[in-house]
Amino acid sequence: MKLVRFGDPGRERPGLIDRESRLRDLSGRLDSLDAAALAGLHDIDSSSLPVVDENVRFGVPVSGIGKIVCIGLNYADHAAEAGLERPVEPIVFFKPTTSLNGPDDPIRMLRNSHHCDWEVELAVVIGRHCHEVSEAAALDHIAGYCIANDVSERKFQAKGSGQWVLGKSGDTWCPLGPWLVTADEIADPQDLRLTLDVNGKRMQDGTTADMLFPVAHLVHFVSRFMSLEPGDVMLTGTPAGVGQGRRPPVYLQPGDHLRLAIDGLGEQRSEVVAAL
Residue 181 CB: number of other CB atoms within 10 A? Predict the structure, then answer.
């Protein structure tokens, strides 16, 4: 099932994408589309829901996100292009919920941001409380998957005191969606192709098969240190091809257009805009 939230910012309604790729309105059945609502959706007959014919904006596909847990350097080729050793265990950091952004909404640069970069990532949405969950049971705690862009300001991330969170936390710097695809539709989260284009040029082209730490291990590992709650989001890392890794480096500029895609999860299209 492909679940969405559509409408103007702050006024999104729940919906789903049916088998014919039509948008159906779920607002007659649900007030909101949070992780707690997902369990009862599989019994809904999508053909009974109203079709939304007009062009609409898609927002972040799930509401009530409590925290955004991110994994750094989870692809060997990305670690290599950054000139860093492969991590011996997952590198964990956070993005604030104020960084959340609709999949096609503008990405706004920060003042003094001149090294703004892109990162296409598989995002995991937690569906069940998990604390110290085993790796074998980890995937059973996932509600679904979607596309994320871990927008990053490399100077803020690595220069000076080198605080990753400061280089990852700008408002609009976590576009999510367009859909939340429920876990039952993703046969293997380690067999998905990820791509990212900037102004029509392919920059990233990887596969989740190349993760150093697969999704099940990430959920298991993080749950040893903190509880993961329904609606929490985990970004699982990016493959090679980021702007900083190019010679010479290439960074985002106002007016640039991004297209991100992951097998079965749709695509994002967004424009970079200047700071206010």
Answer: 23
